[in-house]
Amino acid sequence: MKPLNRQTAQLPNQRPVKVLQFGEGNFLRGYVDWMIDVLNEKTAFNGAVAVVQPRDRSRRTIEALRQQDGLFHVLLNGIRQGEPTQEKRLISCIASAQNPYDGYAAYLALGENPDLEFIFSNTTEAGIAFDAGDTSIDSIPASFPGKLTALLYHRFRHFGGDPAKGLTIIPTELIENNGTALRQIVLQYAKNWQLPQGFADWVQAHLAFCNTLVDRIVPGFPKDTIDAVQQELGYADNLVVTAEPYHLLVIEAPDAVRQAFPAQEAGLQVKFVDDLTPYRTSKVRILNGAHTTLVPVAYLHGLRTVQEAVEDEQTGRFIREAIYSEIVPTLDMPDDELKQFADDVIERFRNPFIRHELLSISLNSISKYKVRVLPSVLAYAARKGRLPEHLLQALAALILFYKGTWRGKRIPLNDAPEVLAFFEQAWQQGDAEAVVTATLANTALWDTDLTQVAGMAEAVTAHLRQLQQTEATISAK
């Protein structure tokens, strides 16, 4: 089988580098690089990517990118309009791959590129953090924000503080206000390192740090089927990335960024907004909230994956009614956008190419319910004057799930020790009403006493008793 490189793929010379990318992992390659490749095909963007490894760790991916001249395939596997779909794309937008620990000066020289316009990053949630150990610009900083500050200062000096050489920085790390947080840390390094005030002024006036919301499931390298995949591709591609077709990128940015990054012209699901808060809320409540709502109900129903649960007649109807009738009505966005997002969520849950185990997403389900579902419960009660039946049924199922056994079999719970200890003690009382009352009154779990919500304890108790009756009936057969 032939190797994958620009010669074997017969690709032309590379485009000018417009994007610097901190991160070489599956997500960025199956999300950002895929988008840029589509932009190059369908718009006049005409930009290449220089990849930088943000931390001193295994050089395997960087070396593989170099060996393959930056080429790799993205395979999209999922459901579209109710039908299974598979697509493949050869990604050709990466021009170089560099580990800054192999040469600090060569890394800083990336900032001298006059064509550079964008910086993307994905360095995990812990990546956007200040490191007090980074005490000087003279040697390579350990943190990603420290490396970024060093490169930006080198660019500032190289171009004499030219306002036109400012950049748009688009972090994709999963923390709230990621762009704002990154800018604050850059300015903190500038102050600690006693860099000129002119540099800090340039950063604040001529660099756009964008807050973002990202969404795409990227399972990554298909190790179980790679031989068959490579046979189909016709190349020995060691960097194949699998991903779902669905993608969403919401960016808080000025109009100039929208014009420079014409994603919507390419048909990409990229939204430029003044405030992404409603989008973050809808994602947390619909996508994440539906996961958390579904897990205990489906698991106690005998199902083990998200796909099985959604395609089961009973639990599939349950989660659809929970989403469309109880979660969506609590959100402040246009109805058509909310319905489309909800439709997309159900379609993504049905993806036959991703085996999403219910137990794998049951981690810390109590805190997840507090953040992802409880706001919908309270908002629904405030707007409708009644409690949401399905979301409270899910809470009852969650309380029973945390008993740790179902039909005589152990449930492998995964939560903080203090949470597990509480439920172990609560369930020693045995009585459903007592367990529910103790759970709802535990302010350490919810940050509020939920027994004060009118009718909530009674409704959850009724649902719990019904579940216990179902368990007893099944066990007696």
Structure description:
The model has no long low-confidence stretch (mean pLDDT 96). The chain has two domains: 17-273, NAD(P)-binding Rossmann-like Domain (Rossmann fold, 3-Layer(aba) Sandwich); 277-476, Orthogonal Bundle (N-(1-d-carboxylethyl)-l-norvaline Dehydrogenase, domain 2). It has helices at residues 26-30, 32-42, 60-67, 104-108, 144-158, 178-192, 197-206, 226-233, 255-260, 277-300, 306-311, 313-327, 335-349, 365-384, 389-401, 417-427, 432-441, 443-446, 456-476; strands at 17-22, 48-52, 72-80, 83-91, 94-98, 118-121, 168-171, 208-209, 212-215, 241-243, 248-252, 270-273, 405-406, 409-410. Strands 5-2-1-6-7-8 form a six-stranded parallel β-sheet, sandwiched between helices. The relative contact order is 0.09. The chain contains 19 helices and 14 strands. With 477 residues, it is of the alpha/beta class. Helix 10 crosses helix 15 (389-401), helix 14 runs antiparallel to helix 15 and helix 15 crosses helix 19 (456-476).
Total E-strand runs: 14
Largest sheet: 6 strands, parallel
Low-confidence stretches: none
Beta strand %: 5-15%
Helix residue percentage: 40-55%
CATH class of the largest domain: Alpha Beta
Distance between the termini: 57 Å
CATH fold naming of the largest domain: Rossmann fold
Cα-based radius of gyration, to the nearest Å: 25 Å
List the defining traits of the structure above.
N-(1-d-carboxylethyl)-l-norvaline Dehydrogenase, domain 2; six-stranded parallel beta sheet; alpha/beta; 477 residues
Q: What's this, in brief?
A:
This protein has helices at 26-30, 32-42, 60-67, 104-108, 144-158, 178-192, 197-206, 226-233, 255-260, 277-300, 306-311, 313-327, 335-349, 365-384, 389-401, 417-427, 432-441, 443-446, 456-476, and strands at 17-22, 48-52, 72-80, 83-91, 94-98, 118-121, 168-171, 208-209, 212-215, 241-243, 248-252, 270-273, 405-406, 409-410.
